[in-house]
Write a structure and sequence with these properties.
The complex is a heterodimer of chains A (about 425) and B (about 260). Chain A is α/β, with parallel strands linked by helices and about 425 residues long. Chain A contains seven helices and 22 strands. Chain B starts with 5 loop residues before the first strand and ends in a 10-residue tail after the last helix. Classes of the chains: A alpha/beta (about 425), B alpha/beta (about 260).
Chain lengths: ~425, ~260
């Protein structure tokens, strides 16, 4: 308990000293609410329903220090032509390269409406903690009607010592009718570093957004991401998330469908191994009529890895004709692996179509035998099946360069995947 | 007889303690087509799976010799390298793995194990295009995941398509005829007939005599309660069609089923 008190002190101190002056007034106000909330409730424990299978361990026991602002060479992390890099939450000015129609600002002098509202802090005490602590906040804006062929990359680098924390905070605003692909990448980190990124994405009317998130930090690092999307009228969001696993990786994702005809596909793959714990906590809010959401999260667990998938579809009273599907599939590759799958529906409208499905199982031995009987080696048959299982999700990314990059990352953690060879390039047109 | 091709000696197998094969004996010379008929639950499919190397069946006694080598010690893939092929009674759906990739990998694994050069994608495509027509399937099916969403008939044709590509020495067709309409049956039988040669043997497992009108077997064996209860020529198949299996079950005093 005393540790929580000390973390509370940290939050209060950092707030009172007004270190946090580089942010916008609305965010400042929210920050005071968050700090108050956190001081009131402290870190979530396993008694908290949302944290039952996600113990914080030393994250709630050690007082972490804020990581320093640094200038380092991050070119090795960049993969796309256009993008921005944040090091320990600070924008690396010299690494900004954005196409016409896209800009990035410091939010201090901007007038905009945050997507995170006060009630989210009560929903998620960890968000109250991280929200209390960010000291820089940025806004990345894509103009209305902009059609961008190349993805925009946002690299979040944690470059810090043990027991240091970083809180990068970005608001992405996509104008009406724009078309854009984002890649949010989390890299770096080290033993017991703590990354607490907060990302808000507002998708304008009839806009088309593909949003890829890759969590590829050092394996001993702690990572707690909070993302919130708002999807406006007739807009379409396709979010694809890839978690390669670390000792504790958690992603809380909220998707609000706020305009009629808005649709979102929210998909993910998680591949924890060794002693990893990976959590994906999804909340999809259907707030308006004729909104559609499809969720497909797939997990492959090796060694003693554990995972939690919790998905809640919340259909508001007004949201008639909602069409929502939620699917969570897990494959356990070892006897020690453990997956939790917790689908939930909360429906207040009476004319909706909502389904969910959840499975936890092993590789289909019948299929393995079938392939082996045709001459495919056991180890190859297994890695082929695991790979194919994951492919279903990343095939939803239409940009082929990006898709191949995700595929390579997946292959890098699948056992015996070197046997597969170049799978995608063997697909010639027939 | 020393120069036999495929021989099963006193094969006993069980699953979860339940005895299913109770001493199967069989001789299949090179270049011949033999049929195994029998009522449901007699152990025909178990025999097919045991020959192919399914690990969930425990072989407690006996041996299976392919060209003199006891294949019971080999893994399923090693049996495939030796030229064994099983067309499954229920071909398995493998979501996400394309037929093209899978079959090319299978063919090249077998070729490599036999010291042959691997075929590249273009050579493979040329071969696949040719063979896919023979079984009356659309080329598009090569791009689809293995058996995924195929109808029962398509799955059976796809098995024969794989057989045509892999060109095994010994092909076991496990009830490939069940669930096929007469047109599909003709296509399947024609493809099998086209592969018949002095160098290749077939074991056709079936419940019905119908397919044997199209693929004429050299011998017919009847399996009852885990043993080959009777063997004979094509006439035996006709007799079974007419009289059913009951009379053989009664006659089960025969030792082993091999012609003595």
């Amino acid at each position: 308990m005393s540790e929580t008190v000390r973390s509370v002190d940290l939050v209060i101190d950092s707030y009172k000293k007004e270190q946090l002056c580089a942010i916008n007034d609305k965010e400042k106000l929210l920050q005071s609410v968050a700090a108050e909330k956190f001081c009131d409730v402290g870190f979530p424990t396993q008694k908290h329903e949302e944290w039952r299978f996600f113990p914080l361990g030393e994250v709630s026991k050690v007082v972490f220090k804020r990581a320093d602002k640094l200038k380092i060479d991050c070119s090795s992390y960049r993969e796309e032509k256009f993008g921005v890099v944040f090091v320990n939450g600070h924008l690396l000015e010299e690494a900004v390269l954005l196409p016409e129609g896209v800009e990035i600002f410091d939010t201090s002098n901007l007038d905009f409406t945050p997507l995170i509202e006060e009630n989210r802090f009560a929903q998620n005490p960890m968000l109250a903690f991280s929200y209390s602590l960010f000291e820089k906040s940025y806004l990345l804006r894509v103009d209305s009607k902009a059609v961008l062929d190349s993805p925009i990359e946002m690299v979040f680098v944690t470059h810090a010592d043990k027991y240091n924390f970083v809180v990068p905070k970005v608001f992405v605003e996509v104008g009406d009718v724009a078309e854009v692909t984002f890649v949010e990448k989390h890299v770096g980190g080290g033993i017991s570093t703590l990354s607490l990124p907060i990302v808000e994405v507002s998708v304008g009317k009839a806009a088309n957004v593909t949003y890829v998130r890759v969590c590829d930090e050092e394996r001993k690092s702690y990572h707690f991401s909070y993302s919130i999307f708002s999807v406006d009228r007739d807009a379409n969001l396709s979010a694809v998330s890839l978690d390669l696993g670390s000792i504790k990786t958690r992603h809380d994702l909220v998707v609000m469908l706020v305009g009629e005809g808005a649709s979102a596909s929210v998909d993910g793959v998680y591949l924890p191994r060794k002693n990893d714990l990976v959590g994906n906590y999804l909340l999809v809010e259907h707030r308006m009529p004729h909104t559609t959401s499809h969720e497909l999260y797939k997990g492959v667990l090796q060694d003693s890895a554990r995972s939690v998938f919790k998905g809640l579809i919340h259909v508001f009273k007004e949201a008639q004709k909602t069409d929502a599907i939620q699917e969570n599939r897990n494959i356990l590759l070892s006897n020690e692996a453990l997956a939790h799958s917790l689908p939930q529906l909360l429906i207040f409208a009476d004319d909706v179509k909502c389904t969910h499905a959840s499975t936890i199982g092993r590789l289909d031995e019948e299929a393995i035998f079938y392939m082996r009987s045709r001459g495919v080696k056991d180890s190859l048959a297994r890695s082929l099946m695991v790979h194919a299982f994951c492919l279903e999700v990343i095939e939803r990314v239409s940009n082929s360069t990006l898709r191949n990059r995700l595929d390579k990352k997946i292959l890098s953690v699948i056992p015996n995947s070197e046997l597969i060879g170049n799978y995608l390039s063997s697909e010639v047109d027939v | 007889m020393n120069n036999f091709f495929f021989r099963i000696n006193d094969l006993h197998a069980e699953v979860e303690g339940k005895k299913i094969l109770k001493g199967v004996n069989l001789d299949l010379p090179k270049g011949e087509v033999h049929a195994i008929m029998g009522p449901n639950g007699s152990g025909k499919s178990t025999l097919a799976q045991v020959i192919a190397g399914r690990e969930s069946y425990e072989v407690t006694e006996g041996e299976i010799l392919l060209e003199g080598e006891n294949i019971l010690e080999l893994s399923p893939e090693e049996r495939a390298y030796k030229g064994l092929f099983l067309a499954f009674q229920y071909p398995v759906e493998i979501p996400g793995v394309s037929t093209l990739y899978f079959l090319k990998t299978a063919l090249n694994s077998i070729r490599k194990a036999n010291g042959l050069d691997e075929v590249d994608t273009y050579e493979f495509m040329a071969l696949a295009r040719e063979k896919v027509k023979e079984v009356g399937l659309d080329e598009d099916f090569l791009k689809r995941p293995v058996n995924w969403g195929f109808s029962g008939g398509e799955k059976k044709r796809a098995e024969i398509f794989q057989l045509l590509i892999l060109q095994p020495k010994l092909a076991i067709l496990d009830e490939t005829d069940s669930g096929l309409d007469i047109d599909a049956l003709r296509i399947v039988a024609k493809a099998v007939e086209s592969m018949r040669s002095k160098e290749r043997s077939f074991l056709v497992i079936t419940h019905y005599q119908r397919i044997l009108n199209y693929i004429k077997p050299d011998r017919v064996h009847v399996m009852v309660d885990g043993v080959i209860a009777k063997s004979g020529g094509f006439d035996l198949a006709l007799e079974l069609e007419e009289k059913g299996y009951g009379w053989i079950e009664k006659e089960l005093t025969f030792a082993g089923g091999r012609d003595l």
